[in-house]
Amino acid sequence: MRRIFVIIKNDMKLFFSDWKAVVIFLGLPFAFVSLFIFSLSPLLEGNKFIDSFDIAIVDKENSLESRMLINQFLSQAATEEDYGGEGGNVVRFVKTDESNALEMLKEDKVAGVIIIPEGFVYSMSIGENKPFQVIVNSSNLLVANFIKNYMQSYADLISASQNGIMTAYVFYSRAASEDEFYDEKYTEVITKFSLKALSRNEAFKTKEVSYIPSVTKYEYFTAALLVVFIMFGGIMGIKFTAGEKQLGISTRLNVSPITGAEFITARFITVFILSLFQFLSVIIPGWIVFKIYLRLNPVYMLAMFILTVFAVSAWAVFIAVIFPTPVAADLAGSLGTLLMAAVGGSIYPLTSLPDAVKFLSYFTINRWAVHGFMEIFSGNLTHMFFIDIAVIAIMGIVYILLSLPFFKLIQKRV
Amino acid sequence: MAKVLTVFKYKLKILFSQKSFLVTMILIPLFLTFITGYALKFEKYSEIPVAICDLDNTDYSKMIIDRIKKKEGFKIIVTNEAGAVDLVKNYKAESAFIIKNGFKDNLISGNIEGIIEQVTSPSSSSHEVIKEIIGSEIARIMLNISAADWVINEYTKLGMFSLYSGSSSGQVEKQRIWDEAWQYTDALWEPEPPMKLELKEFNNGSIVPEEDDSGKDSSGGSISLSAFGMLVAFLAFLIMFNSSWLVEEKENGTLKRIISGPDALTALFVGNILSLLFFGIVQIVIFAAICKLIFKVSIFASASSIIVLFIYLLSITGISLLISCILKTRLQLQAGAPLFAIITGFIGGCFWNITSMGGIVKTISLFTPQGLALDLLGRYGIQPSSEGFLAEAGAILSSFPAIVLILIAVITMSSGYILVKKLRY
Fold it and tell me: What are phi and psi of A78, to 5 degrees?
């Protein structure tokens, strides 16, 4: 027991002897979380298929009715006042005059222009239906089609109402008379069918789904990078081992009374302590600055953390034993961490990755650990949390079992 | 010159003896290019995928689906309910619409609330607009039904069905007139709806009537920037990791002898710098060739990218030299180099689409050689230029990022040389 403690004390002394490295070790994770939140939030929150765009709207009629009609557009989409806010709408309308609108279209400041012509509302009321102009930029076909379909949907609402009115007129005229229709039924029919068309959205009930638990973007990236930095903490174990091999210390350790099990236990504990420091250096600032949710029973957090460190340490030991040289092991650890982070969804959200990579992510520690931490931050544990824990534990055991034959081989050589 | 060539040859032998390392330094960035390029692709779609599930299976629901399928710009995926939800969860569809069982009956009875379930993801911003587009098709059917209902009501008030009172033929007649009114309303949409749009396109500086876009495909987003990002990140990794020669000479004690020899230090410096540059160029060429083969992306679409990459290589070589002069052991360098390269790679924007970003993230990235190089590559390296090569080269070399990179190279190499020369044993 004392020998284990001695190794741990020595490793800690070595680590803290370089204060600059300690500052970077503890300060860098939170800085990275902040950087990722600013840089990669669009992947999490942004629309994958179409970017938001502006449409200039020109009201040449400028009557009460035309303004009401425009307000219909604006109530469905974001207005220019919402620009830069968190409106979450793909379309923003910008009210302006015709020459400015066309200029904005030429300069690519807007994706389309809608022009309500003079006399539009009156022409609708008498069934003449002056068309409103929709000008799109053909260089962006996706957005151009989107705008056309969107504007066509409004035109179709008007058409649907007018067709209903026309049917009412034709059939009523057959049974009674045209004059009677206009005198007694016309106003009622217009109101009834217009309101009917406007009520079409009642048919929809919206539901949100996501593979990601309900977490904020801060919580998402904190969980994602927490695991990466726990892995870097795990690599410290490789670095210590690599350094000892390089300096011949490991050969001397082999002839000392310390057993292999004691050595590995000491190294595990060292990695655990370093990972704990790094874990706290992310969680505490995250809680203070980003208000990440930590009100769940701390036992779950501790369990997740311990098992993640266990799996990472086991992986680090596996890397250390299978690579022929300390330098190769160190390099493999760094690159392996980067690869696992990319494949496992710690850098880019899993939903933005190709299917083949999503399949590979199941074999990474990151995928399960990130999901587990997100379940904790969401404050709403499901059965998936226990699956995450179980898989991580199994991964750790598998890595240790895989390491044992190689470790025995090395001991035989020495 | 002979001494320089000797060092150059000897160093190249050592560098190229690490075949597995070289292969790893090519394969890993390629794999990450694939991931990054896929993750960061944007607007490479020419259609927005929308999933639809028909649980009602009536003529009304089929009508809705048929009409939506005809809309340009949407890729309609008809699937089952679980499949539709999965598509949205995995961001393979922007939205899913589940036409509930009883859709037709509820439309006819006027009880329309929640007859279609729209499934969307938290990041979806266009689902409201797509709902509007589908809603207009629902409105068409709703108004057909409303018009027919209104006709029946008015006919009943006018006593048109009094002859049939009490008999089943009254219901038959009502149904006949209802169907007739419904069909009449629907027929008014042909050959074109009453309310039309006047569609125009802005094309090549002028506004023209709408053309047929059905053959056009606006997809084809490239992963060039991702490839550049990975290449730049791993070049730094490669050069820094292999800059241990100076530290090794210090550790072995051979540096003392080299300093004392005439022009030996200069030959050692120049030879090693040239070998690292050559090594970097080989990695660039192999990476570019494989990118062209697998991803059909040409790193050298513009000849300017060669200039930018070369300036970047020089600056990274200089930085790694300076770091080697400062660090005391090879272990320190090889432990710190990967971490330094990865961290500066992240800060420099190698792992995301830095050219489309602004603000503080972009500003911070310009404090790294990777960020400066990516800024230049984003401006000059993606598309071939219409200007001549010399003109473009002049523009690049006179730009601020290029000047900074060249200065970094000059200052770091000179400083490294001076630091070593000043060593006294």
Answer: -80, 150
